[in-house]
Design brief:
By secondary structure, the protein is of the alpha/beta class. It has four domains: about 70 residues, no CATH class; about 170 residues, 3-Layer(aba) Sandwich (Rossmann fold); about 130 residues, no CATH class; about 70 residues, OB fold (Dihydrolipoamide Acetyltransferase, E2P) (Beta Barrel). Helix content is about 40%, strand content about 15%. It is built from 20 helices and 13 strands. It has a six-stranded parallel sheet with strand order 1-8-5-2-4-3, sandwiched between helices. Strands 9-10-11-13-12 form a five-stranded mixed β-barrel. A hairpin with a 5-residue loop joins strand 10 and strand 11. The longest helix has 20 residues. The termini are far apart. It is an enzyme of class 3 (hydrolase). Pfam families: HA2_C (PF21010), Helicase_C (PF00271), OB_NTP_bind (PF07717), WHD_HA2 (PF04408). Its EC number is 3.6.4.13. It comes from Ramalina farinacea. It catalyses: ATP + H2O = ADP + phosphate + H(+).
Length: about 525
Amino acid sequence: MVDEAHERSLSTDILLGVLKKIRKKRPELRIIVSSATLQAEAFLQFFSGDELEVNGHGGQNKVGRIISLEGRMYPVDVLYAEQAAEDYVELAVKTVFDIHASEPEGDILVFLTGREEIDNALQRIADRAADLHPKASALLALPLYAGLTSEQQLSVFDVAPENTRKVIVSTNIAEASVTIDGIVYVVDCGFVKLRAYDPRTGIETLTATPISKASATQRAGRAGRTRPGKCYRLYTQAIYDTLPEATVSEVQRSNLAPIILQLKALGIDNILRFDFLTPPPAELVIRALELLYSLGALDDYAKLTRPLGSRMAEIAVEPMMAKVLLSAPSLGCLSEILSIAAMTSLQGAVWFQHNGERKAADASRRKFAAEEGDHLTLLNVYESFITKGRKDSKWCRDNHLNYKSMIRAVSIRAQLKRYLERFGIDVNESLASKGRDNGSHNVGEAIRKCLTTGYFSHAARMQPDGSFKTVNQGTTLYAHPSSLMFNRKADWVIFHEILETGDKVYIRDVSRIEKKWLLEEGAGSFYQVQGARDD
């Protein structure tokens, strides 16, 4: 059974393709594909192929049938903006206070695109709530996004105090993943942050893009769960009419290197013949094959290399980090790289800050700062947590660290360690830490060299104005304010993640490297020095 198929995640699309392949060998296999909003005919067509013989009701054929289960929904009035908003965060806040002033009781759910916008909106709501009439009911504004602590996330489900209206400001996590009782009003900004990979630059960005009609319907539906509600769309009816029917599937906008590596490991060698529900652009496939080849996972015939390629496929991290982990033993820093791999897998959920605590949170980060950059800083955080914070959640709170995330990092590290031990790789913790005590500078250099073995394609050079430029396409990047490399000097760096905000492209998890490592540790097939130039 494949649930939530409409989300069209990479895993779902690959699973459906593999199941279709399996079904040719096992026609008796029953497959159930379920979803809240689904173009059912397209899925049936995918599995049917030439066997499609739909009956008069459009719901049954030789291969399968469509079964519709009508859920109970209260009516939701949809209201559109008269004109497009220049600042939808400001309009969202204004709409919240309009609802609070003129509509009956009921909680409000506001959809924005990310943490920065949510924190901004919460600050504006708090500022204006102070001016409410003393006899008016109060507003309790709460955030909801992935980087919050579990306690903060669970607080959105608590019943609001008497004479108080709850306002939850959320990313699209509240669109389908969670259902919050008491929501009567939805405010929809009309945007969502989606990951998109550009094969020409090799850069994956997180960019705010217009939602689809299917997402707009999902969001509006949140208002009609317990009683009739209203959905305020902060865009015009004309804009809604131009929205795509469904969100572009991940397979058409993602770095396909992890997926191709998995398919190769499953014995599916001919990627071009693999039956995708919606085929990815050829450029994405070519770029993924190039990256896997330069990492050493594929040979000249695009076959999985052994043992490196097959081991990279088995480790539950993306290929660049898998290469780093498998390179670490030869560079004598495996214990440290295991910790760094676990910390980077948290995707920015290491730190937290409440409203008005930015300076205190920044001061906490500086306690763990390593001048070489973010990866060694994350290592310092992990090692401090193991020695001081693992049995003391107060230590985490005092240092603005997400305790649950840190516990998860410990679990992820143990899992990665088991993978390597299964390969017969000796993870000698005491030896690694002893080496660090005796010469941390050398181990720090080894760690950064090791990171370069996997992340050489994410290299950039600092420019005189403090920005960075990538090697291959010269894309201009800026260190994210949360990075230790923000406003610091470095000639060359490697980075993990890219975030596009407005007209700037930011990089996160950044570390200093030496240019020569790109040719020593990085794949010589990826970079070549041109002539006698020194750049």
